[in-house]
C-alpha cells in the first residue's frame, strides 16, 4: 500500500471511483430484475456483454471513463458475493451452519471505495510514477515493490485520501540444502544437553553462568554510582539548608 500525493488531477480518480459505484448499483438492479422476470441467476458473462453494449449508448458513454477491466472486476466481485450467498443457503438447508448471509445490495455512491485494474489500463513508469489511463500520478514509495505486479487497485479512505495497492506474485528463492544421505538422532537430557546416536555428548553452553563474573562487576559499579549520587544529593541538601538559614 502506497499513498498517492495530493494533486488536482486526483479528482479524476475520485470520479472513476464514483463511476464504479454507479455501475455496481446498476448491476445489482439488473440482477434483481432478471431474477424477478425469469427466476434465474444472471451469469457474469452475460452481464459483462450487456454492460459493454450499454457503454456504446450516449446515455452511458461516460462509463467509459472507467477502464473496461475495472468494470469487469466489479461484475466478478458481485458474482463472488452471490456465490457466497448461494453456498450459505445450501449449508443452512443442510443444517451445516446457522450463519445467515444476505445477497449483495445497493450502496451509496459516496461510500464507493475502490476500483481495480488488471493487465491493462495502467503502467508503472519507474520510481514513484504510475500512469492510469492518460494521467500520471505520484505516490509515496516507502519501499520497493517486490514481485511481479498482477493488479493495481486505487482505494479511497473515509477522509478522502487515495492509496494505490499492488497485488504481486512473489517467487520464493530456492533453498539449496546440503544432503549427505546420513541420518542422525539426538536426545535431550538434564545432565547432558545433547547426546548423539553415536555417543557424542554436547554440553549446554550455559551463557549466563559464563557471564556471572561480568554481571557481578557491573552490579558493583552500579552500586558505587548510586552511593556517589546519594552522597552528592546529601551535600547539596546540606548546602541549601545552610544558605536558607543564613
Tell me about this structure.
The strands form 3 sheets. Strands 1-7-6-2 form a 4-stranded antiparallel β-sheet. With 246 residues, it is an alpha+beta fold. The model has no long low-confidence stretch (mean pLDDT 89). The protein is extended and about 90 Å long.
Overall geometry:
extended
Sequence of secondary-structure elements: EHHHEEEEEEEEEHH
Overall pLDDT level: 89
The largest sheet, given as strand count, sense and whether it forms a barrel, is: 4 strands, antiparallel
Please give the order of strands in the largest beta sheet.
Answer: 1-7-6-2
DSSP summary: helix tally:
5
Query: Which bin fits the share of residues in helices?
Result: 40-55%
Keywords:
5 helices; three-stranded antiparallel beta sheet; alpha+beta; 246 residues; extended; 2 domains; four-stranded antiparallel beta sheet
Outline:
This protein has 246 residues and is of the alpha+beta class. The chain contains five helices and ten strands.
Question: What secondary-structure arrangement, pairings included, does this model have?
Answer:
Blueprint: E1 2-3, H1 10-38, H2 44-54, H3 68-93, E2 114-117, E3 122-126, E4 129-132, E5 135-138, E6 148-156, E7 162-169, E8 186-188, E9 194-196, E10 201-202, H4 207-210, H5 212-245
Antiparallel strand pairs: 1-7, 2-6, 3-4, 4-5, 6-7, 8-9, 9-10
Helix pairs in contact: 1-3, 2-3
Amino acid at each position: 500500500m502506497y499513498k498517492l500525493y495530493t494533486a488536482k488531477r486526483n479528482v479524476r480518480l475520485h470520479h472513476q471511483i464514483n463511476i464504479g459505484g454507479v455501475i455496481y448499483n446498476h448491476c445489482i438492479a439488473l440482477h434483481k430484475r432478471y431474477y424477478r422476470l425469469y427466476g434465474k441467476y444472471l451469469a457474469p458473462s452475460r452481464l459483462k456483454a450487456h454492460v459493454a453494449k450499454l457503454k456504446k449508448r450516449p446515455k452511458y458513454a461516460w462509463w467509459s471513463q472507467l477502464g473496461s477491466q475495472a468494470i469487469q472486476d466489479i461484475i466478478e466481485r458481485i458474482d463472488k458475493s452471490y456465490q457466497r450467498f448461494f453456498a450459505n443457503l445450501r449449508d443452512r438447508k443442510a443444517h451445516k451452519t446457522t450463519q445467515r448471509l444476505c445477497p449483495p445490495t445497493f450502496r451509496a455512491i459516496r461510500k464507493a471505495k475502490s476500483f481495480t485494474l488488471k493487465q491493462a489500463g495502467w503502467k508503472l513508469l519507474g520510481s514513484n510514477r504510475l500512469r492510469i489511463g492518460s494521467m500520471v500520478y505520484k505516490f509515496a514509495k516507502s519501499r520497493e515493490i517486490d514481485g511481479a505486479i498482477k493488479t493495481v487497485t486505487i482505494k479511497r479512505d473515509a477522509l478522502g485520501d487515495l492509496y494505490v495497492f499492488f497485488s504481486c506474485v512473489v517467487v520464493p528463492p530456492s533453498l539449496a540444502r546440503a544432503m549427505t544421505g546420513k541420518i542422525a538422532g539426538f536426545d535431550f537430557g538434564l545432565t547432558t544437553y545433547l547426546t548423539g546416536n553415536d555417543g557424542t555428548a554436547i554440553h549446554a553452553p550455559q551463557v549466563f553462568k559464563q557471564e556471572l563474573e561480568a554481571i557481578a562487576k557491573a552490579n558493583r559499579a552500579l552500586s558505587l554510582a548510586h552511593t556517589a549520587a546519594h552522597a552528592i544529593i546529601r551535600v547539596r541538601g546540606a548546602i541549601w539548608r545552610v544558605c536558607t538559614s543564613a
